[in-house]
């Protein structure tokens, strides 16, 4: 639909993929190695994008084994054949570990099977082993063709027309052990499984005052163990990259008994399956259990999570990641030439980038080499910035020093939640309180936002008070939407009474406006001349200055899960369309990204105006769809996308226009999007951002402490801490530049709309950097 195509600025510099045609090309997609949730989303994206650009797309079933065996293992894919795959875990086209492909004879048979079908573009989804195999196959390609020609299996013409093999890889592995990408497909879903189990175990451990030792997967990579330890506030974690110091047995037991004596009823210890001590002896879950029983006599149980971690439905993040990578992979294949090296599509920050496959593989092998040579700091560094960040945050939060060892800063820092509740707020408060105490501050908790502030509901909060907070949804401090503007005198008075030297506000748009009000009143109230920082926490993800906010990932998963169930309810009744209303205020983030993760046909948002002609075209599109084998439709509408085209209006319009072709149902998802236990991402994001916020407060307090008091009234002492690169003004509570708007055309393509897709960001092959670029944790002056 022309009306729905997305317009961007300055047409001349951009290139659109309309110029990239796949006509006459054949692409084959395979999944290989261990399965991972989200592989199906990647396969679906490759197939649909391939068909969209006019290429033929083939499934290769059972990984490399299917390529070697040929026959029915290599089948042409259709648009409908990848329908309903998005929400399925594992890989629908099968995966196998293949010995034969390791031999030259095996690769010769595989090459023959590809040439028979003129397939010269391969998209491989798997781990580093699978990708290395693909690269070797490409290097040998011309010699394999020569050999086939000599044996008379192919003719001169076939050899000539299939002379180049192009390869693009996507990393599907729950271990997140591949250098060059922040996240591999499946990692986030595996974390979801681990956290679900840990939350369940915590309730039973609490009842019996037990210690639990949990063993998680990850081969030689400690990512899953480290991040899940951070997300559940585990007492101790063992990972291969950082073996514990000698004498760890005593210090671990001492820590466990200290936490019990402070009133905790349980201990959680997480062990990565590849964990070792400094002498290369494996640290197994049983070894840890026996130690705890012997030294402390605690009732201790072991739980090995095993293959549960590979199973289940992919999380929203993995579906989006895999869909973006799949589309990017097809673009990379279309642009490949004889001289471009085989590449992997990877994620850096919020950007899909292409990196030379072998550079990534070599760097991944270097990590293993560093670990073998006991250069552990080097191994951690090679794992990349996000791994280092997780490790340093875990260290910061995990161990409480004795009061005598703490610095005494004599500063008082207050923490409050403002706006609607968002999952992950409590994790942020916990991190802030504990890092604050470690830095020597006295931490104060304010109940019920700015309302509780001016009423004086302020009390000191200690280390033990925030135990077990990471996994709790909502806001335990209590939160209100009240703005401080009308109560500035009372708030200033409370700041004076409690001698508050710095403010940390965790919340949504009201928190943003509230801090603006406080900072602009500094000239009237000297008490407000203190460092103030805001950490964005709102399901709507509409805070200017940050690409993501705490709580939006949990909300996204709630939307995706519900859409999955709703789609399933239509499997019996054919030809049904669901109209689903999501939250998000005026920000279309939840609707758009939720739509991409749930496989929606259309999404209506405020940022992209639509009129009756668009609605009509969308109904027509669904009418066409009902003639295929996929007889159901999913339409998402953001709550404020249009004041006149309400959800009821859209529902009635679709019902009337679709009469005789499909029937409609409507769902308003409502407050379930604000509830629930926080997702692993929100727990970690909340924890890391709040820890950084307190470190910023400490630095700013030190800088602004003069003549025996804190005085901070410059612009850069009231700021917002977020993840992002550039900041611009907003209107209607939404930032101007939205990174996720670029995902809209992607969603349309995967739903079979003709649209324009800006590919000017992609296409350049970048290089793996030794030291990764600084994550732009921008603090922007409010």
TrEMBL record:
Keywords per UniProt: Allosteric enzyme, ATP-binding, Cytoplasm, Glycolysis, Kinase, Magnesium, Metal-binding, Nucleotide-binding, Transferase
A Pfam family: PFK
Pathway in which the depicted protein is active: Carbohydrate degradation; glycolysis; D-glyceraldehyde 3-phosphate and glycerone phosphate from D-glucose: step 3/4
Gene3D superfamilies noted in UniProt: 3.40.50.450, Phosphofructokinase domain
Example of a GO MF term: metal ion binding
GO cellular component: 6-phosphofructokinase complex; membrane
Activity: how regulated: Allosterically activated by ADP, AMP, or fructose 2,6-bisphosphate, and allosterically inhibited by ATP or citrate.
C-terminal regulatory PFK domain 2: annotated span: 412-782
Protein name as annotated: ATP-dependent 6-phosphofructokinase
Gene: LOC118311281
Residue positions binding ATP: 34, 97-98, 127-130
């Amino acid at each position: 639909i022309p009306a729905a195509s997305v317009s961007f600025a300055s047409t001349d510099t951009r290139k659109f993929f309309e110029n990239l045609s796949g006509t006459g090309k054949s692409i084959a997609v395979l999944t290989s190695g261990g399965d991972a949730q989200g592989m199906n989303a990647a396969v679906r994206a490759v197939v649909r994008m391939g068909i969209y650009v006019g290429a033929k797309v083939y499934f290769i079933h059972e990984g490399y084994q299917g390529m070697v065996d040929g026959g029915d293992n290599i089948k042409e894919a259709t648009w409908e054949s990848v329908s309903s795959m998005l929400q399925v875990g594992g890989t629908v086209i099968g995966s196998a570990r293949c010995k034969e492909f390791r031999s030259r004879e095996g690769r010769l048979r595989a090459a023959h099977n590809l040439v028979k079908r003129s397939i010269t573009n391969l998209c491989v989804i798997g781990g580093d082993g699978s990708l290395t195999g693909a690269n070797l196959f490409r290097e040998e390609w011309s010699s394999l063709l020569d050999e086939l020609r000599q044996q008379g299996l192919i003719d001169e013409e076939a050899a000539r027309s299939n002379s180049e093999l192009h390869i693009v890889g996507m990393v599907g592995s729950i271990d997140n052990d591949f250098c060059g990408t922040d996240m591999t497909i499946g990692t986030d879903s595996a974390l979801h499984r681990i956290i679900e189990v840990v939350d369940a175990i915590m309730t039973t451990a609490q009842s019996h005052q037990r210690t639990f030792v949990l063993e998680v997967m990850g081969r030689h990579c400690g990512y899953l163990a480290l991040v899940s330890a951070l997300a559940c506030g585990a007492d101790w974690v063992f990972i291969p990259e950082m073996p514990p110091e000698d004498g760890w047995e005593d210090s671990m037991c001492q820590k466990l008994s200290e936490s019990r004596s402070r009133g905790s009823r349980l201990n959680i210890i997480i062990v990565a399956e590849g964990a070792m001590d400094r002498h290369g002896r494996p640290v197994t879950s049983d070894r840890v259990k026996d130690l705890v029983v012997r030294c402390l006599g605690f009732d201790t149980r072991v739980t090995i999570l095993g293959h549960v971690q590979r199973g289940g439905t992919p999380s929203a993040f993995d579906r989006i990641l895999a869909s973006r990578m799949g589309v990017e992979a097809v673009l990379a294949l279309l642009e490949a030439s004889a001289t471009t090296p085989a590449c992997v599509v990877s994620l850096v920050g919020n950007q899909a980038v292409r990196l030379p496959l072998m550079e990534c593989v070599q760097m991944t092998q270097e990590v293993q080499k560093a670990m073998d040579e006991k250069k552990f700091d080097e191994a951690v560094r090679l794992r990349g910035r996000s791994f280092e960040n997780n490790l340093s945050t875990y260290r910061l939060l995990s161990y409480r020093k004795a009061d005598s060892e703490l610095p005494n800063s004599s500063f008082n820092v207050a923490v409050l939640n403002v706006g609607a509740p968002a999952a992950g707020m409590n994790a942020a408060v916990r991190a802030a309180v504990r890092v604050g105490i470690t830095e020597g501050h006295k931490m104060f908790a304010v109940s019920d936002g700015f309302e509780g502030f001016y009423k004086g509901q302020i009390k000191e909060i200690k280390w033990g008070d925030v135990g077990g907070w990471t996994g709790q949804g909502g806001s335990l401090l209590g939160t209100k939407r009240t703005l401080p503007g009308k109560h500035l005198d009372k708030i200033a008075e409370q700041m004076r009474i409690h001698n508050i030297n710095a403010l940390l506000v965790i919340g949504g748009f009201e928190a943003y406006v509230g801090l603006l009000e406080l900072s602009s009143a500094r000239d009237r109230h000297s008490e407000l001349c203190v460092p103030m920082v805001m950490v964005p926490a709102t399901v709507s993800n509409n805070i200017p200055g940050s690409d993501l906010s705490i709580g939006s990932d949990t909300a996204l998963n709630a939307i995706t899960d519900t859409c999955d169930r709703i789609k399933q309810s239509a499997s019996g009744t054919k030809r049904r369309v669901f109209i689903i209303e999501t939250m998000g205020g005026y920000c279309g983030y939840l609707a758009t990204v939720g739509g991409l993760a749930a496989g929606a046909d259309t999404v209506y948002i405020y940022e992209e105006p639509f009129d009756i002609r668009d609605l009509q075209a969308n109904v027509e599109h669904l009418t066409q769809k009902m003639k295929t084998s996929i007889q159901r439709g999913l339409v998402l509408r953001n709550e404020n996308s249009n004041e006149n085209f309400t959800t009821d209006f859209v529902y009635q319009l679709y019902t009337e226009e679709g009469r005789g072709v499909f029937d409609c149902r409507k769902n308003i998802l409502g407050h379930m999007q604000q509830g629930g236990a926080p997702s692993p991402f929100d727990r970690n994001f909340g924890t890391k951002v709040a820890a950084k916020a307190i470190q910023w407060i400490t630095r700013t307090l030190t800088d602004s402490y003069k003549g025996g008091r804190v005085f901070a009234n410059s612009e850069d002492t009231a700021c917002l801490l977020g993840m992002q690169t550039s900041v611009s003004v907003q209107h209607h509570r939404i930032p101007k530049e939205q990174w996720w708007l670029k995902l809209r055309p992607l969603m349309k393509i995967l739903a079979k709309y003709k649209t324009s897709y800006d590919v000017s960001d992609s296409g350049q092959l970048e290089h793996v950097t030794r030291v990764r670029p600084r994550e732009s944790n921008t603090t922007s002056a409010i």
